[in-house]
Amino acid sequence: MLKLAEIFYSLQGESTFVGLPCIFIRLAGCNLRCSYCDTKYAYLVKFQMNNDEILQKVQQYEPVKLVEITGGEPLVQVEVYHLIQKLHSQNYKILLETNGTLLLKQVPDYVHKIVDIKCPGSGEAGSFKEENLQFLRKNRDEIKFVLSGRDDYEFARRKISEYNLRGYKILFSTVFGKLQPARLAKWIIEDKLPVRLQLQLHKYIWSPDKKGV
Ligand code: SF4
Q1: Domains of the chain
Q2: Considering the entire predicted model, what is its pTM?
Q3: Tens digits of per-residue pLDDT, 129-174?
Q4: What separation in Å is there between the alpha carbon of 190 and the centre of ligand 1?
């Protein structure tokens, strides 16, 4: 059984898949407590389902074949690997959004990974497991920095060179309401950084606090 916070269908609000219809499976529980966390409700278990029940729910949204497994931190529950296999066997394209602190070794290669490197503004800097870089595929998997201000921006810029991240898909996202996208855009343009500015699309379409979108 997996512990869940919600399953819903909406538009993908982040990553290079932004804007596409997508089914979200939000698992409950997280090993971090980021200052800006906008899914605190996922710390607690809302309901439980086995893999067949989850698949049944996901199949209600056919012909959509794009699924994101997120949290919380989805890799906290080891049963998630069975869910991944099950979804793959039914030809779903699987996105996995993970906070980068747990080993990705067991995550199958066919999963499209979106991995955080936490910045100081989150209160969880230093949590990224550097050895995870060997399990990420350049030109496909995505590395995300969520930035609260200039200090975070400088931190992220240093990490790009320290970890030699050029060639990966790098996302720079703002903490909504804290860092103005226009400021971040200006910095990226000035520094000619090989990164993609990411806004959380769902927060602009719907209310920033709205759940299940
Ligand atoms: S890793 Fe994600 S879910 Fe966990 S505390 Fe940080 S922002 Fe919230």
Answers
A1: 2-205 (3.20.20.70)
A2: 0.95
A3: 999 999 999 989 999 999 999 999 999 999 999 999 989 999 999 9
A4: 30
| Nearest atom (ligand 1) to Cα of 42 | 3
Ligand 1 mean position, distance from CA 30 (Å)? 6
- Ranges of residues in the chain with a pLDDT under 50 are none
Looking from the CA of residue 116, the nearest atom of ligand 1 is 1
| Closest C-alpha among 34, 33, 44 to residue 4 | 44
Pocket of ligand 1 (CB under 6 A): 30, 32-34, 37, 39, 42, 71-73, 99
Say which residues have a Cβ less than 8 Å from residue 88's Cβ, sequence separation at least 6.
94, 108, 110, 111
Q: Which atom of ligand 1 is nearest to the CA of 146?
A: 7
**Atom 3 of ligand 1 has which residue's CA nearest to it?**
72
Are 196 and 172 spatial neighbours (Cβ–Cβ below 8 Å)?
yes
Atom of ligand 1 nearest to the CA of 33: 5
pLDDT for res 139 = 87
